[in-house]
Known about the structure:
A hairpin with a 3-residue loop joins strand 1 and strand 2. Helix content is about 15%, strand content about 40%. The N and C termini lie far apart (about 45 Å). By secondary structure, the protein is mostly beta strands.
Amino acid sequence: xxxxxxxxxxxxxxxxxxxxxxxxxxxxxxxxxxxxxxxxxxxxxxxxxxxxxxxxxxxxxxxxxxxxxxxxxxxxxxxxxxxxxxxxxxxxxxxxxxxxxxxxxxxxxxxxxxxxxxxxxxxxxxxxxxxxx
Length: 133
């Protein structure tokens, strides 16, 4: 598997932003899947993400079939410094400790993010951990 770093932002359907792989050996469109990414960050991420509310943004992402959640997050972190600072630590190769990740509304254990494969239509949601009563 090659690196997923180097995603180029493109507008998709006028609804949300999408990325297409650049420099990846993708022979046909059948090798690309679409995944929806939703974050608790709002306008801070910039124009590459659709702002749904002041505290929520989303993007439609096109990525190579067979990619993992960690590869997706690493690719976004390498292209978006704020994403790297607030969501995915590139040096550690992991999700920030104050966040949780849901795939299709199911919590993904931190230990499984690196091996969790993405499929067409998956919804990835990254939210902060809240505690209290």
